[in-house]
Specification:
Adenylosuccinate Synthetase, Chain A, domain 3, 3 domains, 20 strands, Adenylosuccinate Synthetase, subunit A, domain 2, single chain, binds guanosine-5'-diphosphate, 4-stranded mixed sheet, 12 helices, Adenylosuccinate Synthetase, Chain A, domain 1, about 20% strand, alpha/beta, 10-stranded mixed sheet
Amino acid sequence: MPAFAVIGAQWGDEGKGKVVDFLAERADIVVRYSGGNNAGHTVIADQGEFKFHLIPAGILWPHLRCIVGNGVVVDPNVFLQEVKGLESRGVDSSRLLVSDRAHVIMPYHVLLDQLEEKARGGAALGTTGKGVGPAYTDKVGRVGIRVGDLLDEKFLLKRLEVVCDQKNALLTRVYGAAPISLEETLGECRRYGRELSQFIASTDTIIQNALAEGKRVLLEGAQGTLLDVDHGTYPYVTSSSPSIGGACVGVGIGPTAIKKVVGVFKAYSTRVGSGPLVSEIQGGMGDVIRQRAWEYGTTTGRPRRCGWFDAVAGRYSAQLNGFTTAVLTRLDVLDGFESVKVCVAYQVDGKTLDHFPGSVSVLERCQPVWEELPGWDQPTASARRLKDLPPGAVRYVRRLEELIGCPIHLISTGPRREETILVRPIVV
Ligand code: GDP
């Protein structure tokens, strides 16, 4: 029953898209398990560059079945647009399925997301405004619309009558906005149902059966562990669980089916939007990294905040997820620096912490304790074998392994598939 989970180990944007695409060659099914179109995965394959927001990054391999799992919230317009984009570039979408249990991002979720974020003023969370948070809120509040509901008009109408009343009270009385029309919302849902019907299936059963047959299933995470609604820097988090627990829940399998838990780390730290980032570098080297690595969001275009590798956060992430294997991406970005730093502990209120605190009010006051390592002159960019890496880079990789407590079995040295060092096979 070999499932392999690929999990963002930091604040997202670690390069999971490339890693999933690379590992997918040896898989049979790729399932995305959490988040919505607030995520953006970039893959550079033989056919060129692709940016995915909902569809699993494995879709570029023609032998694979790709599934949008029940833990994902689906904006049908975005999904259908992505399918169209892929088809126009010759990628067959008939291998794609969406769970009937996945929740729908409705037009009113997008509207409310923007109104809520505006109302937060200075305390804005930095959401992407795509309706993801409100869709998850409705899921937990038991007023969500699920993808399978789109195929059952009678049931849908009953649900929408209640939901539209509720949303209209919120829209008009709290935000002073115009009400939504039940008729129009139902009309939209009818269209969604028609256009999505060929993709909708009970995907949990399909995945469970595939595992029973010994098929290799890759579980594709979105965002990162430190944005997890339970374990991240709450409230500056996403509304779902990018960590390992979310992988089981968001696909419909038990933890014993997961053979390897793969944590994807970037060789330094980045974060989009608000919230603590202890190892952030303001200006100077932070700007150099941002420019060199083009650290701007795939979905929003927002500049990412940059910092050195945070080993306190990294160790926390490794323990929380039980990583059996780590992947290090973007090592090439650090090429040519005289020295590189790693945050090995935090200092707060006169104390040194070696664990990641649960409270953002503590995290916001933490100062990094740096360890400085020599850099490397020779490039790592495009290297394909461990022995092609300069000694300084190897020392850096080894030190990170020690600090996070997990072996690094894959090193990415550039955005292309072939710019990868496979130290030890992962999907077997
Ligand atoms: P994801 O959301 O975790 O998939 O990450 P993103 O797609 O937002 O960001 C990763 C970016 O880094 C993409 O533009 C990738 O093409 C690129 N990338 C991935 N691995 C590497 C690498 O090892 N080196 C460099 N320079 N770029 C990489």
